[in-house]
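S.,

Sequence below, as promised.
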Amino acid sequence: TQFGSQSPNEIIKNRIVLEAKRLLAHTTLTIKEIGYILRYEDSAYFIRLFTKQTGVSPQQFRKQYHVK
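The prediction came back faster than expected:
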């Protein structure tokens, strides 16, 4: 399976980051609001998780996605 080498924790983090990317790309919610929706009351922890998983901060991801 595609999840064969991933721990359950990694699978969950990947799904959280995927949903965060969707919200960053398609809404005007703040980073803090997105973190809260995804059950992270500590937005700094959410930002660290996102950055570690993707290599860019949520702010950088949103800027890359919304090129004007």
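The chain has a mean pLDDT of 92.

Coffee later?
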